Amino acid sequence: xxxxxxxxxxxxLLPALIVGxxxxxxxxxxxxPPALGISTPEARARSFxxxxxxxxxxxxxxxxxxxxxxxxxxxxxxxxxxxxxxxARLLLQQLASSPGEAQASIAEAAVNLVADDVYCAxxxxxxxxxxxxxxxxxxxxxxxxxxxxxxxxPSLLELAQTSKHPLAPSARxxxxxxxxxxxxxDGPAWERAIQRQLAQPD
Length: 202
What we know:
Elements: H1 23-26, H2 41-47, H3 69-77, H4 84-93, H5 100-111, H6 116-122, H7 124-128, H8 134-144, H9 149-160, H10 168-179, H11 187-199
Helix pairs in contact: 4-5, 5-8, 9-10, 9-11
């Protein structure tokens, strides 16, 4: 079966933001008007100075232009004379040594290159690794839900059964929703449920 579009609703749950106006603020007393007085040029000069302080000899801040090192590496891999699967493998290998700000971009570039028939060999190991950076793992998990059921369901089960993986509970909850039941730690029952789901007509 093909992946259902409404799976995107499982990814991001945005809480509603409720903003209330304080009743006390609405009834706070108004500040009294300023006292009237005789204004003189000397008084105005003291109250409203006309001179503006100027900071002299302020240091110049140099801003370096150009791509970051990880961006340079990413841009170097994409045009290589390699198959998309080989490029994706190289990109995923960069995750371990890339900064946090690069993780999501590299992971997204990698999964976009991978077809379903090689997903489990190339992308799934990175998703199953509990040490994969959270930003990259979130991208890989979201991309998995966009795959066909033949890839997504068994991969979700494997992720749910990966001990101490931070995404294991989410994988189990998602899989239970897709197959219609939660079989807990019963691996064979999960596998039978997946096979029944895959056997259903499109």
